[in-house]
């Protein structure tokens, strides 16, 4: 099992996306077979769902790694643009996104503010 996760980690973002799509199609086919009582091994559905979860986890890890590389100013502008959206559905999703981005922004802004404060104390 861990070797499959390592294989997923070795894939590019595009390959992961294609693998995810194929696995989701496979789960659909397995569910259809299950509904028509033609499924030979019921554990296949569970294995395919686990693969989907592993792929999505790796994609999210990569997304978060990219967000950590974004400068604090861009994070602030991204937060402002998400908060400006008012009349669209998905309010909870936007609130969660803003909360996560604010956490990343605070983590980036705190060391910068701390180094300025330390520099100011050293000159006095």
What would your notes on this structure say?
85% of the residues lie in helices and 0% in strands. With 124 residues, it is mainly alpha-helical. The longest helix has 33 residues, at 91-123. It is elongated and about 60 Å long. The mean pLDDT is 88.
Number of DSSP strands?
A: 0
| Sheet with most strands | none
Beta-sheet strand percentage? under 5%
Rounded average pLDDT: 88
Structural class: mainly alpha
> First CA to last CA: what distance?
58 Å
Anisotropy-based shape:
elongated
Amount of helix? over 70%
Q: In DSSP terms, counting alpha (H) and pi (I) runs of 4 or more, how many helices?
A: 5
How large, in whole angstroms, is the Cα Rg?
22 Å
The H-and-E topology, N to C, reads as: HHHHH
Which segments are poorly predicted (pLDDT under 50) over 5 or more consecutive residues? none
Task: Give a brief outline of the structure.
By secondary structure, the protein is mainly α. Helices cover 85% and strands 0% of the residues.
Helix-strand layout with pairing:
Layout: H1 2-10, H2 13-35, H3 43-69, H4 72-84, H5 91-123
Helix pairs in contact: 2-3, 4-5
Characteristic terms for this protein:
124 residues, mainly alpha, 5 helices
